[in-house]
Automatic annotation (TrEMBL):
Protein's UniProt name: ABC transporter ATP-binding protein
Family under the similarity heading: Belongs to the ABC transporter superfamily.
Pfam families linked to this entry: ABC_tran
Stored PANTHER family: ABC TRANSPORTER, ATP-BINDING PROTEIN
Keywords (A to Z) from UniProt: ATP-binding, Nucleotide-binding, Transport
């Protein structure tokens, strides 16, 4: 069943003397992946903090999973939310797995298999016993993402999640987000790199001077592309920035993208020019 998992209703926020958010409206339904882009200091993190209950709106309301986010004790923090906003404090002498297990214990929701799985999904080996202090910046970043997904959240808030990741790691991240969205998680991602964010998100907004504006037409046509091979998926990613993998159709790797092609034949022709020959293309309005 589809429902609204995150909703900003006319939200404004001032920090210091800066009017960071002005009358922001935004809603995310089950399985939506939205991106927020904007210059440094434009308020992207503030938007995510408001949804995670780390900060409260001056005016307007923020609703998460059917509950209004209110100032007060920790019990008022929205439930079922995974976040990577401020990097968690990982202990330098513990391994990645030990750090995640400890955090899960603190939060009282330990599922050892899920913790291990979340590490695999970001390309980290849970059996690697190296201490966190020896982790590279990319490994630290990915451990932060693993921490955000380890409790199977219904809502996922990620601030600059792909910062420092290489191309393959970004692909893994794209697959992870597509899979979570496919299972119904609503995801909000901020990034100052626009081309990255188009790759992961169904809708992209820019934030500037407190105003949130859509960058893509919400009714832009969505195309499902069924391919012959994993190799074609790689080529599609290279040639269509909005393309993302979203599973299998009849045992063939498939994905979706948005774009303004007139019809399926036009998209077939565009792809043929790039040397990509697909099994099938389905356009939706
Ligand atoms: N606690 C605070 N007190 C005063 N000003 C703040 C506070 N927190 C953030 N700001 C200011 O609010 C503005 C928005 O900050 P925010 O961190 O949301 O931006 P951002 O778009 O995420 O930036 P970046 O990409 O650099 O992280 C910035 O100008 C920042 O300096």
């Amino acid at each position: 069943m589809t429902s609204i998992l995150i909703e900003f209703r006319n939200v404004s926020k001032t920090l210091g003397s800066k009017h960071v958010l002005k009358n922001v409206h935004l809603s995310l339904a089950t399985g939506a992946v939205i991106g927020i882009t904007g210059a440094s200091g434009s308020g992207k993190s503030t938007l995510l903090r408001l949804a995670s209950g780390l900060m409260y709106a001056d005016h307007g309301e923020v609703w998460v999973s059917g509950r209004k986010v209110r100032p007060g004790v920790a019990g008022n923090l929205p439930e079922g939310v995974g976040s990577f906003i401020e990097s968690p404090v990982f202990l330098p002498t513990l391994s990645g797995l030990q750090n995640l297990t400890m955090l899960a214990h603190i939060q009282g929701k330990v599922d050892a298999a899920y913790i291990r799985d979340s590490m695999h999904r970001v390309g980290l080996n849970p059996d690697n016993n190296s201490a966190f202090r020896t982790y590279s910046p990319s490994m630290r970043q990915r451990l932060g993402i693993a921490q955000a997904i380890m409790e199977n959240p219904g809502v996922l808030l990620l601030d600059e999640p792909t910062h420092g990741l290489d191309r393959d790691e970004k692909h893994l991240f794209a697959d992870l987000i597509a899979e979570l969205a496919g299972r119904g998680t609503a995801v909000m991602i901020s990034s100052h790199v626009q081309e990255d964010i188009y790759r992961y998100c169904d809708r992209v907004y820019s934030l500037a001077e407190g105003i949130l504006r859509p960058l893509q037409q919400h009714r832009e046509r969505v195309w499902t592309i069924i391919t012959n091979s994993q190799e074609d998926i790689g080529l599609l990613r290279m040639n269509i920035p909005s393309f993302r993998r979203n599973g299998w159709i009849n045992s063939n790797p498939a994905g979706i993208c948005t774009g303004e092609w007139e019809n399926e034949e036009e998209l077939f022709a565009f792809l043929a020019l790039k040397g990509i020959f697909c099994v099938e293309i389905r356009g939706e309005h």
